[in-house]
């Protein structure tokens, strides 16, 4: 084995490929074929649901994982990025993969790759798939990392593909327009298989592309939908008159979570003949589902709310949640963004809700210069006040010192931002 510790493996993977991102499938597919020659190309030994999109991917995977586990299936889930530790990316039966399991998978991949310079994400994707095969999971849930068409996850042919939403993000890789982004995201669709679209107003090209490749589109607002009763319970409706009634409100916050849950349920229903899930498991999963960094409210005073929102679509959902959340004092924000984001798009929806902002660069080489965020605040929130700090830790400390018990402090902008807040505010979770 090349390395003994997970940290050493991950540090080495960061240096192996000359580019952090290399969106091609030939290299990673060839390594996978050598790693598991017993498998048919593009297939796992179990059904696969691949989840892509700009926002809502993690929520959809989490709903599916909660439902399949509640139904008693051995479930593998691969997600990215992580909040606190790399192991979060690979889960089997709800448990994170151990350091030993990941190191063993990396060693097998290292041997199989020959001279192929895999990226960090490609190593992680191969390791997750290898762990799933060896654990003999009954269902594999794969979250797309970036895009879809050329993402490493897409070397596996999904039995069901779900695109949660389309929004502006990663323009340098996916294109400047929603139609271009939709084409890339639609790359996970397969002929003759369900293509679930979890957005009512998704760009037309997304559904058109599904039809072009011969996939079977199921779109929210068309073949799929939901309605809510005065009691708060909701009804899911699918094709051919299929319904699930009296479902409990999802434990994840926000109206968008009904859309995410409805789309995920649409994907689950497409595998019902192979993996049936009864309504009791559906209800249990909705009540128990958890997902860190999505309007996470920490106990205590003042109230701390953590959210990974980092694009326009996510910021709109965050603003809706924040506006409806009780706050008897002032609202503060601690904001830190990565350099490839649009600060105006993130700040705009929240401008009218935040009294004072604290800015600090995250501990990342990709951190956005504070001057860009300051300019966006001057333009998008001229009535607000703000202070800039040398780093994110100082920004968090300053917000804590300024806030009174009745106040609320929102920390948002990236996974790195939320990670820093969790390490400061919830050390027991680290």
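^ Assign residues to that structure.
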């Amino acid at each position: 084995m090349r390395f003994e510790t997970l940290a050493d493996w991950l540090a080495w993977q960061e240096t192996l490929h000359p580019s952090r991102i290399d969106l091609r499938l030939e290299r990673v597919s060839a390594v996978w074929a050598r790693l598991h020659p017993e498998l048919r190309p593009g297939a796992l030994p179990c059904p696969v649901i691949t989840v892509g999109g700009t926002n809502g991917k993690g929520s959809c995977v989490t709903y599916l994982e909660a439902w399949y586990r509640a139904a008693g299936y051995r479930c593998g889930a691969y997600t990215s990025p992580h909040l606190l530790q790399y192991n979060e990316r690979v889960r089997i039966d709800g448990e994170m993969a151990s350091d030993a399991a990941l190191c063993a998978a990396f060693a097998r991949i290292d041997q199989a790759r020959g001279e192929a310079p895999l990226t960090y994400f490609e190593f992680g994707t191969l390791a997750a798939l290898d762990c799933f095969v060896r654990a003999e999971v009954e269902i594999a849930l794969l979250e797309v990392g970036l895009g879809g068409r050329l993402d490493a996850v897409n070397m596996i042919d999904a039995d069901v593909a779900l695109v949660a939403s389309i929004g502006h993000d990663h323009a340098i890789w996916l294109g400047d327009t929603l139609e271009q982004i939709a084409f890339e995201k639609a790359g996970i669709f397969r002929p003759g298989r369900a293509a679930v679209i979890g957005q009512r107003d998704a760009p037309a090209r997304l559904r058109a592309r599904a039809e072009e490749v011969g996939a079977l589109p199921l779109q929210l607002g068309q073949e799929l939908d939901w309605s809510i009763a005065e009691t708060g319970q909701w009804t899911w409706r699918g094709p051919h008159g299929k319904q699930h009634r009296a479902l409990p409100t999802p434990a994840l916050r926000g109206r968008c979570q009904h859309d995410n849950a409805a789309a995920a349920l649409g994907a689950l229903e497409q595998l019902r003949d192979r993996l049936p899930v009864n309504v009791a498991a559906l209800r249990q999963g909705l009540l128990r589902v958890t997902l860190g960094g999505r309007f996470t409210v920490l106990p205590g005073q003042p109230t701390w709310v953590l959210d990974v929102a980092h694009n326009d679509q996510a910021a709109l959902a965050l603003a809706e949640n924040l506006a409806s959340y009780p706050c008897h004092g002032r609202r503060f924000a601690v904001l830190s963004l990565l350099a490839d984001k649009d600060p105006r798009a993130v700040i705009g929806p929240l401008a009218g809700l935040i009294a004072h902002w604290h800015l600090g660069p995250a501990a990342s080489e990709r951190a956005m210069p504070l001057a860009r965020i300051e300019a966006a605040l001057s333009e998008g929130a001229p009535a607000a006040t703000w202070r800039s700090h040398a780093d994110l830790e100082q920004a968090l400390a300053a917000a804590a010192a300024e806030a009174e018990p009745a106040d609320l402090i929102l920390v948002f902008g990236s996974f790195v931002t939320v990670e820093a807040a969790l390490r400061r505010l919830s050390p027991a979770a680290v």
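The chain has two domains: 6-288, 296-429.
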